[in-house]
Amino acid sequence: MKHKVSLTSFLYYCVALLTGHFAAAQEWNGYTPTSFQEQEKMETLLMQGMDFPGYREHLKKLTERPHIAGTPANEKVADYMAKVMEEAGMMVDRYPYDIYMSTNGGTSNIDLVTPIRLPLNQQEYIMEEDPFSADPTLGKGWNAYSGSGDVTSTVVYANYGTKEDFEKLTEMGIDVKGKIIIARYGGNFRGYKAKFAEQYGAAGLIIYTDPADSGYMKGLVYPDGVYYDESAIQRGSLLTTDYEGDPLTPFEPSLPLDGKKKVKRLDPSEAGLHTIPVLPIAYGAAKEIFARMNGKVVPSGWQGGLPYTYRLEGGEELTLRLQVDQKKDFTRISNVVGTFKGSEYPDEWIILGCHYDAWAFGATDPNSGTAMLLSLSEALGKMVKAGHSPKRSILIAHWDAEEHGVIGSSEWVEQMRDVLGAKAVAYLNFDGGVSGKNFGAASSPTLKGLVTEMAKKVDYPYTDKTLYDEWRGEKEVPSIGNLGGGSDHIGFYMHVGVPSLSGGSGGPTLYHTNYDDFHFYETYVDPEFKMGGTIGQWAGLMALRMANAEVIPYDVKRYAVDLKGHFESAVKKIQQFDKEFAGFGKVETALAVLERNTTVLDAALTRALGEKALSKKELKSINEQLIALEKSFIDEKGMYYGSWYKSLYASTDPFSGYASWILPGLEYEISLESSNRLEEWDQRYAAAIESLANKILMLAKSIS
């Protein structure tokens, strides 16, 4: 039911609540003073129970073999994770899906044809220093969801292969039709490089990592340093549908073909998959191409780090053959989800997750996060076995087939859509969550306070500072990012409206190469193996703080603060191409009400918790209403670039695939430099903010 509250009523409650003597007595954090004392004891137990050396053993076990989604090796990883969680006392469930995908690159070749015949290398070198590099199950570089084809043609260089780069080629009179494009990694999601190449009529695409971006131009290369050597190849998916998950089951879970419930699937021809062949190569192979190009010199900013003058075209004398035969079929994947059932509120869920499939060994990406979550499972299990169960349920999820296109988590979100809408308190993502020693996080507004407060309670292992102080450095407060694309929080946050965060520690990476292995990790990433337990403590504290609070400790006041800044930024961007644009009047009015109402709620909760005045029935109602707040931004119409993305608050940038779009309805119009729908968006955003503000005030009234 949608309630309307008059301004007069609002002011009455505002004055009454703010003058309450408990309003200034404590900073509300979801606990009564007594329960908070008990919570601090539990958090100390968690910190003490974290097995730092155990993290190393988990990571070593998880990365024994390359384990691509859909392969027997990945099933063994799933079995190991399930065993660890079951031994920790968790109830473990598996969620199988049949996905249309490939588990290997099939047959592929890339050769110079003229002026000389020269096959180009497609796989990393075997290195004496790194015994993992000789694993016989390692394969060539490949891109999932490449088209198949056998093309011989001349070559065009497209810089990073962004939308702007292809537009620049057109502006400079370079025709790419029928040509093979070579583009470097960076600037956007690799799938968009393929999408734009195909849109402009290219016959094939080669993607390489330039040494200016990771290679000898940056520093020492592997195995002497942390940068790509001349054989390192970045693998990765090219999937660019306007929805997440299995390409044949948009909006619906890709349930097993042999299961009881049948799911309608698209024909592969209807899914908009790429049709041109695409291959990733190393810069050692790319240099053989660049050395022989003789067209026009590239514009400013397009020169890379190879020792040649970069040119736009290879000329008629330089021809390449690009051949890919990549079969796709239905492949069984499986999410592994463990649960510690809540003792008082079992139907309110705190979910922590990381995918477990990898392009090869996956030591940093993703299994540093996987190993951390296994260690956390064990630490929580010790507490539960000692009689300290969380009040809310804590779920730890290991997603499959993320590397193919955030598939496993998206299918689970689609399967559990209604349940998550009612039960999910938060989703915490740790993809590659212990990939170095540099801490950072991105979060939705209501979790930002939790992210920072829990970082203050954890010691950073390499200095005498807390994790928080190490994070903020010389700044007064640390920078918390906004959630973008590229990992498993997408479905939770952008499709269903579950407050989410992504965080951990980063550092050197041999991203998606065969060298992202245990040797690289223990040599360069964290030789002392102290960060795994550290991030586990931080993640565990956040989960416990949310699990045991009488009132879910969302930072509700942050909505108005962040939204105000985001709309101010959007207005400035719009005025760059529309000088007469005056702003979003309806939104400004709604934001003013939201800001006042969050203050009212904050005061009401502070007073109620300070007085210990809330019954279990009242608490249940309060928390149900709090969980519903983020759903104010879920708009069934969704975005114009893809209705699967339903959050008005945040979305993946549909042109880069990685970046965060805050207020995505507006960002899309800005990218088009269009003012045509701004009035519509003023109404849609104002309605969402009014809904949120009204929910907040009704919640405050129910407490008072």
From TrEMBL:
The keyword Signal is annotated on this UniProt entry = yes
Cross-referenced Pfam families = PA (PF02225), Peptidase_M28 (PF04389), TFR_dimer (PF04253)
Matching entries from InterPro entries are given as:
PA_dom_sf, PA_domain, Peptidase_M28, Peptidase_M28B, TFR-like_dimer_dom, TFR-like_dimer_dom_sf
Sorted keywords for this record are:
Signal
Transferrin receptor-like dimerisation domain ranges (all copies):
584-695
Q: Where is the Peptidase M28 domain?
A: 335-519
The signal peptide here is 1-25
Q: Which domain of life is it from?
A: Bacteria
Domain PA: from-to ranges: 151-215
Q: Would I find Signal among this entry's keywords?
A: yes
The text of the family note is:
Belongs to the peptidase M28 family. M28B subfamily.
Q: What is this protein called?
A: M28 family peptidase
Which species expresses this protein natively? Flagellimonas sediminis
- Which lineage is the organism of this entry classified under, starting from the top rank? Bacteria, Pseudomonadati, Bacteroidota, Flavobacteriia, Flavobacteriales
